[in-house]
Amino acid sequence: xxxxxxxxxxxxxxAYLDEQTKRMIRRAILKAVAIPGHQVPFASRDMxxxxxxxxxxxxxxxxxxxxxxxxxxxxxxxxxxxNAVSIRxxxxxxxxxxxxxxxxxxTVIQTRxxxxxxxxxxGQTLVFQVPIPEPLRFLxxxxxxxxxxxxxxxxxxxxxxxxxDVAKHGRIAKTYAYPVEVEGRYMxxxxxxxxxxxxxxxxxxALQLFGAGREKRIYALPPFTAVKSLDFxxxxxxxxxxxxxCALCGATDAYLDEVVTDDRxxxxxxxxxxxHCEERxxxxxxxxxxxxxxxxxxxxx
Amino acid sequence: xxxxLIEARGLTKWYGDRLGCRDVSFDVCEGxxxxxxGESGSGKSTLLSLLSGQLPATSGEVLxxxxxxxxxxLSTLSEAERRFLFRxxxxxxxxxxxxGLRMGVSAGGNVGERLMAVGAxxxxxxxxxxxxxxxxxxxxxxxxxxxxxxxxxxxRQRLQIARNLVTAPRLVFMDEPTGGLDVSVQARLLDLxxxxxxDMGLAVIVVTHDLAVARLLSxxxxxxRRGRVIEAGLTDRVLDDPREAYTQLLVSSILQP
Amino acid sequence: MTTNEPILAVEGVAKSFVMHLRxxxxxxxxDHVAFTVSAGECVVLGGPSGAGKSSILKMVWGNYGVDxxxxxxxxxxxxxxxxxxxxxxILALRRSTMGYVSQFLRAVPRVSTLDVxxxxxxxxxxxxxxxxxxxxxxxxxxxxxxxxxxxxxxTFSGGEQQRVNIAxxxxxxxxxxxxxxxTASLDAVNRAVVVDLIEAKKAAGVxxxxxFHDADVRDRVASRIVDVTSFSSHEAAA
Lengths: 301, 257, 238
Description:
By secondary structure, chain B is of the alpha/beta class. Chain B has helices at 44-51, 79-88, 97-100, 107-117, 123-136, 153-165, 183-200, 211-217, 235-240, 245-252, and strands spanning 6-15, 18-28, 33-37, 59-65, 71-73, 90-93, 171-175, 203-208, 220-225, 228-234.
């Protein structure tokens, strides 16, 4: 973290939102925790950034943040992308909380599109930014109808979608926002995380909160919740596999991003979780690209 | 004689001060086909909606005998129970196939939906059952991955029937099942329905304005006019010896080739 | 009703048509109809056309309503009065006890001849193989060419259609057969076949009620002739 610590803003309530708003959001969170996987409506506020920048996640984070919390913010696994940097700066400014890029050190992690590779532990809270909370939305456009479908656990339609995938592609083609069933009851959209991360949702010791700002919904997975990715008996859920290990740290069990290295078709695969990758390299792991050209990191980033 | 599967008692529906249907009573057993005939606006469709629990009656009741032998009044069913009936025990064949099918989903998905809704989770078995049903309704199973938009009107209607019958329902509602189809296509569909009804021992309530359809499919007929049943009885009795003026008019208006 | 109780007992039956489309005009058909048919008997309804023979047959079958009187048919577990029976009882009677051979075939489109003939036997619970064999035998006997069996009869000639219909009417084992001019448009050879079939049914103890315009056939099959003119309504002049 080499960015200068922003100066705390004055004239705002702690973590930007006023106390009444935070109480309202906490009530929604409590209800969401009590009914795992169920979408709870809340009075989403306008935030000083556009929808699509994580306003749902930010409101949840603001509502749960305490002065002693240590915050980590990632976007697509990286701590250093625009979205992550600006949200982290926002809370440094409005809540003066400590920040970190280390998964293990964080008490609250706000994320867009990833779950960190390092297993989360009890006491940590993962806050997901959610664009579309309704897993049935593209199958059934009417909100009134999807609500009834959830109430009655009438989920045949989602399997129709999976059936169509297998019929068309020979396998379930969905690779992200892969729908899950929570505790054998509610169907839930885990936000657009890659399906690679789905197994991490299951029985996680951490509290997982999902906030959708534009859609005004909050839902949650309390610690140690059973989460099952939907599938067929004869076409079981499969985690994405990668052909090559991370070019930088050699990891074989992490989610990799494809990086184009030149305009002649050159490309490589590197960890999407930057903290995980750095930690492994610090521990001496070397991927194919670094094995012979140590210290060549500048070419990559 | 078996006990009735569905029974209507004094079924009445008012839309404000406009009459939908009034004091309709009848019952249907398994293996029986009842035709409700009458011109448009006679209350046929209102009656069908009341019987299938899609519309609350102003007065009267509909009793249904569930698979576990219990007789339930439809209005006392919870929404969950009603939906469960609709995807297991009941079928509904609409006149417009687009209303009864998911036009954006393949034929296999359309047939498989009810299976998956009641918990089928084996893709291979779902697909095999769907193929089997496409064959039963005379659709080439190699077209299983095509969407209904690629099908002709008659094929869509047969697909709709397969989609409804795949969970082996006991009661099927049909609303003008042959309406809008070519004559030759109609004949094929009627023949198919007749055979399936006999093979599966289905109870069918079919609404039609086509007396030829009623004669070919049904055991009994109810003639409706202005919301009331004006004549009812054995199909060939009503059609060969109509008693009421309106029934005589209907029968005498048929073109006979 | 003594030891040999009749299969069919018609008593005091009256029928008229009210033509609502012609200002409620009432057309009386028959009145005070009374006769019986016992097992092994072929009772033929006699009289000029328009006397109500066909109407009587249809009242017994149940597709004409009855204004007054009773039409009692004995079936395996009791007696059903067709005049007042519920539709379901009549349907059950038609499956188990009564058969009808009409002049005209109301063919279901697209159903093959063999299936048309087999249907009543299947409805009685006969297995498909036996029903198919019995249907084939009847069709062969009635000289319906085998190449036609797999085709729907709708496009057949009148005579062929009628023979298909006779096969359909005779396939099931019933106690009471109603014959509505079964030989009307048949050639001599086929007429003889039908007469033989009727004789065989008679010998098997089937009660039959029929209309035959062909005097020759009528005289050969009739056990008794019931003159319908004696039942004509007073108002029915001519």
